[in-house]
Design a protein that fits this description.
The protein is α/β, with parallel strands linked by helices. It has six helices and five strands, in the order αβααββββααα.
């Protein structure tokens, strides 16, 4: 069920963003993923400052968070109308055209599925522009990962 919950949580947004923290906070509030915006905004900002979300040299950032303030899983694929500049780990400002945001409550099964998605996405980084033209591909990859995980569980029994 948890895997299905994550698959159902995938949203695609084509938009302009001037402040990524405000954008994510408002989107999560709108979808009732979080109940309080200020603490989320501070937490995601700290997380970004600590580890950076930009996959240098690719035009994608992957904001992610596993926390008690996340009420249910949420995956947001954001395709930006105009690129935004975000800090990398090296404190360079890099141009980002895509955000793949993944938020889960503290749950190992969900965290593993989210980790699988990140791994699958990395395989497509060299063709990220083509891949993001059809963001539903990510949902298909997610379903594949989930089915593979289910198969592993069934084989263990």
């Amino acid at each position: 069920r948890k895997g299905l919950e994550i698959i159902d949580s995938v949203n695609v947004d084509y938009t302009s963003v001037s402040n990524w923290t405000t954008y994510l906070t408002n989107t999560l509030l709108d979808h009732q993923i979080i109940t309080e915006g200020q603490s989320f905004a501070e937490l995601i900002k700290q997380h970004m400052d600590r580890q950076g979300f930009v996959l240098d040299p690719y035009p994608i950032a992957i904001p992610h968070l596993k926390s008690e303030i996340i009420k249910k899983p949420f995956i947001l694929i954001t395709i930006l109308n105009e690129p935004i500049l975000l800090n990398s780990n090296q404190n360079d400002n890099l141009s980002v055209r895509y955000l793949l945001s993944m938020f889960v409550p503290p749950d190992d099964t969900m965290a593993q599925l989210v980790s699988d998605i990140s791994g699958k996405l990395v395989e497509h980084l060299d063709n990220i522009d083509g891949f993001m033209e059809q963001p539903e591909q990510l949902q298909a990859l997610l379903k594949q990962s989930y089915l593979m995980q289910l198969q592993k569980l069934l084989n263990m029994e």
